[in-house]
Amino acid sequence: MKWGSVLRLFAVIVAVAVIAVFSTQPIFPNVKWLPLTQGINLGLDLQGGVHVTLEARDTEAGKVNDATMNQLLETIERRVNAFGVSEPVIQREGKNRIIVELAGIQDPEKAVNEIIKTAYLEFKTEDGKTIITGADLKNAVESKDQLSGQVEVNLEFNEAGTKKFAEATAANVGKRIAIILDGQVLQNPVVNEPIPNGRARITGYSSLEEAHTIALLLNSGALPLQTEVIEKRTVGPTLGADSLNKSVKAGIIGIIAIFAFMILYYRLPGLIANFALAVYALIVLAIFSGLHVVLTLPGIAAFLLSMGMAVDANIIIFERIKEELKDGKTLRSAINSGFNRAFVAVLDSNVTTLIATAVLFYFGSGPIKSFAVALAVGILTSMFTAITFTRWVLNTTADTGIKNRKLYGA
User: Where would I find the Protein export membrane protein SecD/SecF C-terminal domain in this sequence (predicted)?
Assistant: First the structure.
């Protein structure tokens, strides 16, 4: 028995056990990021919230089209973010509808009122006087100066706005005129000279994308569409809690069955695979927490599915190792050959699934994207644990002097 290898294995087992306890139990309440489960929010289907469907309608000032609907989406997203709701679902449905789902909202009436309220744009002088509102703004467009390469937002006012802006800029040269949307300062540029023609530009952007966002927000201040709530319902957590409990119960039963099968059929490698599975679960938990993933029922399903794929990768590897041992190779040689020969099969199966998750993420929305992200994280993590961690533990176990082939399933 080589005690150095035994101590290394023992140290790893203790470290994983300690990390597992700290990751799931609130042992240190002063450490805000522990346990890791605090960083994982539950989705609408698990904790309840509000579901709202908005319908945009034509007005005399403008028609429903892609541009005006994008302005409406931008406005709603900015408003929802102000609530601090994590990972809200805001998506367009059809030509003139927008669906908003907010998980964990305690006051749905207030949230809905804030969402549908018309955006209000103001231009204010340093003394707090409002000189122009969104109704005076005709258009805002991002652009890039061909000579200087400077990114800017070009403003164009209507007739009334042109007159007001000319008077205001003439009276405030060298001073700032703040651009405020819903009470928050978007820009606070300095007036360099009087602007009599109703056209102005704002500079100081780092990219066209940033300027585009500001232009959308400015245009949303004079949104020409009328929005109406055609559906509003509160989603209770009862169904979600029941489904969550059933999912957890199914997960526990499945994990116990997997652990028992792996140990009975593959013996020592099976025990190592079970240990690697625990490491896999901790890594996925840490990634979910770091990304502030919103966990939904599809997300739980993806986690359990990826756990099954992690076991499948280990089975492919262990079967290869058994074949190598039956061919008469030494234990260390069989382990190395088994991993090398199984790598291609494991890689192929996981890459094809990753392609499927990419398609789901690109074309899907809401829970479908949640499923795709959770499955992709699980697949990448399972490949890491199966190919690197399991291999290291198996080699270290072989180094301890335990070389009875029957213990390795041969």
Answer: 226-390
Find the mean pLDDT for residues 277-297: 84
Host H or E run for residue 269: helix 268-291
Q: Tell me the pLDDT tens digit for each residue of 384-396.
A: 888 889 989 988 8
Per-residue exposure over 231-263, b if at least 16 CB sit within 10 Å of its own CB, e if not: ebeebebeebeeebeebeeeeeeebeebbeebb
Q: Do 54 and 100 meet the contact criterion of CB atoms below 8 Å apart?
A: yes
The predicted structure's pLDDT at residue 87: 63
Alpha-carbon gap, residue 304 to 306, rounded angstroms: 5
| Residue 315 structure tokens | 């089975």
Cβ-contact 127, 175 below 8 angstroms: no
Look at 352 and 240; give whichever has higher pLDDT.
352
Residue 305 maps to which CATH number?
1.20.1640.10
What sign results for the dihedral spanned by CA atoms 87, 93, 99, 103? negative
Of the two residues 298 and 107, the one the predictor is more confident about is 298
CA distances from 151 to 123, 138, 210, 221 (A): 21, 20, 9, 21
Q: What are the structure tokens assigned to 209, written together?
A: 């994308």
Number of independent structural domains in the chain: 3
In a domain, 44, yes or no: no
The strand ranges marked E within 137-265 are 137-144, 151-157, 177-181, 184-187, 199-203, 226-235
Residue 268 backbone class (left: φ over 0; alpha: ψ -120 to 50; beta: rest): alpha
Residues 129 and 90 in one domain: no
- Backbone phi, psi, residue 131, to 5°: -105, -30
Query: Do both 67 and 153 map to the same domain?
Result: no
Q: Which pLDDT score, from 0 to 100, does residue 356 have?
A: 92
